[in-house]
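Raw record, unedited: CPBP family intramembrane metalloprotease
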Amino acid sequence: MANPNNPELEPLSRTQILVFMGITAIFLLAIAKIWQKLGAVQLLSIQFNYQALLWSVGLAVAITINSGIIYRVWPAYRRSADMYLELVIKPLMWTDLIWLGLLPGLSEELLFRGVMLPALGLNIAAVALSSILFGVLHLSGVGQWPYVVWATIVGFALGYCALVTGNLLVPVVAHIITNLVSGLLWKINNRQTTSEQ
């Protein structure tokens, strides 16, 4: 049965979403490792420290707040985000949100910020190109262009912070927190709708 909000997308089961997330994470990690080996790319450093944690939390809060603002003022983005989040998060159980945070947060950041940024020159042009590719990764249908625009902006923020700090941990933790918070907020805001079905 087709999704009434978007005839392009079929509703997925919890298992399908989890398998898709796992396969995507493995695929992105494999690309990152192959690129790193074949291109002799030095992975962006990972430094565990208090400053990195502050950067990560601050970035995650900024992304979450701005996402909420854009959601309220840009109707096309709201429709796009609702469709994407309903497709991805609705079938998941609350505990599955941990995987929603960890799998994309680790694999996408390893590829787009950890390997791609250094491989492309570790400069603002590399941040811009990796952000566009990151945005395109989030394209799930023709009507999803507003979500792709937002993902590109988020990718730029994550990449810029990685460039400024020189620490891959910052975008990884920020990405994980952002995914967890957005998943939790969507589940909370749509609790009645999903329990009534």
